Structures are given as structure tokens and as C-alpha cells.
Amino acid sequence: MNVKFWLSFLPGVLAAAAFIVTLFGGVYCKFLSFTPDIDGADDSITLNFGIWYYQSWAIVESPTQGTLLMQTCFSYPEGTVYDAKWKSAMAFSTMALIIGGVLAFWSLLAGCFYPAKNTYLAAGCIYMVCALFTGLSLLLLDSNACSSTNNSVMTQLQELSAIVDYVFPESCSMGVGAKCTIAATVMWFVAALAAIVVEPPQRPPITTETHEVTYTKTTGQDGAAVVSETVVKGEPIPVGGQVEEA
Q1: Residue 230 to residues 192, 212, 213, 217: CA-CA distances in angstroms?
Q2: Is 79 in the same domain as 177?
Q3: 20 with 119, same domain?
Q4: Which residues 6+ apart lie within 8 Å of 169 measured at CB?
């Protein structure tokens, strides 16, 4: 196994990493955040929202620690207002995960079926599409979810908790999910370049053994002819090649 062979798997490795980061950014409930406009605000006061889930609080009964209040992710409730950009972010994030996930899995198995270079070039183009779709999921930052007045779930959280007295900014800020999405967009792009530049894994050539046979004819003391055979093993040659006659 040489370096060229291992480099042929680079697009698949990069695509797999991009898929994981895309999944984290798209599914995690900290895509965007609202932090109160007060000095020294605690991080626990920050409200976080994702494409599919939002962060809220849940009461957990622990046999050792008693009643605990924990932050966790919840699905958006019925009646949540999704504008066009929010719905677009959902669609693009889903398409990037489905297309990118299937293609990343295919690339990691490329050593089993040895695709042609044109197939790698096509994969590079699809990685570019995944980069585009992942980047377009950032439309969530310009949707209702990013507006403290238009985000209906945020209004409910303020009414049901002790943070009603805090003043939140009108617009959101990027959370860890959005930052992961930006990183994933770059990773999809790099995976596309790698698929275009590197060569796919090559199937080892099928070879056949060659032998050089020499016959020597001598005459014995009784006058009978004696034929002796000498076999010299040659170098293997690819099937279909020609062996020069001695």
C-alpha cells in the first residue's frame, strides 16, 4: 500500500467528517442564541434555538440528588410559526445530510469496487452541492427564529420562566450550531477539491507467472539421444501481456 493508494480515500474521510459536523450543526438545539442585554449575564440565561429543536428546561428526579432542573432539547411545539427562510433551512439541511451521508459512505468503500476517475469527478461535483446546501441552512439566521419578536417559542419561554424581566436583543447571535455549519460548508468544499484532484484507488493488476524453458540435447555413451530440460522462473507479467520467446 503506497501513499497514492491512501490518498485516494481522502475525499471519503473529509466527507465523513463534514457529514458529522453537518449533523451536529443541523440537529443540535444551539444553532442561534439570545443573550440578555445586561452586564455579567450568566450563560444559563441564554436562550438557544436550532433548526429542528430548541433548548428549554426539564425537571428530573434523581434518587441521589433529588429534584434537578436541567437544560435539554425539545421539538418545536404545534403552532410554531415557520417562515419561508426557516423552512428553507430545514429543507437544505436535510438534503445535505441525506446526499452527503450516502456519498460519504460510498467514498469510504471506494477501495472495494474501484470507481473510475469520471465517477470521482462526479462525486466532487455532488460534494460542491452539499457545500451549497449546508451553507444555505444558515438562512435560519435571517428567519423568524432569529427575531425575538417573531419567535413565538421564545415568547412562551419568557412567559413561563423567571427570565421575563430580562431584555433580550432584537436579533440573535450565532451559536455553536451555526459555527459548525460554516465549518462543515468549508469541509464539503475541501472534500470536493480532493475528489477532483486525487486518483481513485486502482485495482491491483492480475498477473501470470512466466518461465523460460531451455532444452539441451546430448548423446550418451551408448549413442542414445538424451534431452535435458532447464526451467528458469521469470517475472510475473499482467494478463494480456506478451512474453518474448527465448
Answers
A1: 56, 8, 6, 11
A2: yes
A3: yes
A4: 34, 35, 37, 148
* pLDDT one-digit tens code per residue, 82-126: 999 999 999 999 999 999 999 999 988 887 777 888 998 999 999
What kind and span of H or E run contains 7? Answer: helix 3-7
Grid look-up 413561563 returns 160
Residue 72 grid coordinates: 435539554
Give the cell for residue 170: 432584537
With a cut of 80, say whether residue 240 has pLDDT above it: no
pLDDT at 246: 36
Which of these, 120, 111, 117, 121, lies nearest to 203 by C-alpha position?
A: 111
Does residue 243 fall inside a structural domain?
Answer: no
- Same domain assignment for residues 186 and 219: no
Q: Are residues 143 and 227 in the same domain?
A: no
**Cα(2)–Cα(5) distance, rounded to whole angstroms?**
5
Task: Give the strand pairing for 207-208 and 53-62.
Answer: unpaired
Most confident region among 47-56, 116-125, 132-141 by mean pLDDT? 132-141
* Span 67-84, average pLDDT: 82
| Identity of residue 24 | F
**Does 147 lie in the same domain as 187?**
yes
In a domain, 244, yes or no: no
CA–CA separation, 190 and 119 (whole Å): 17
Mean pLDDT of 1-11: 78
Q: What is the pTM of this model?
A: 0.76
Residue 213 within a domain: yes
Residues of the domain holding 224: 207-238
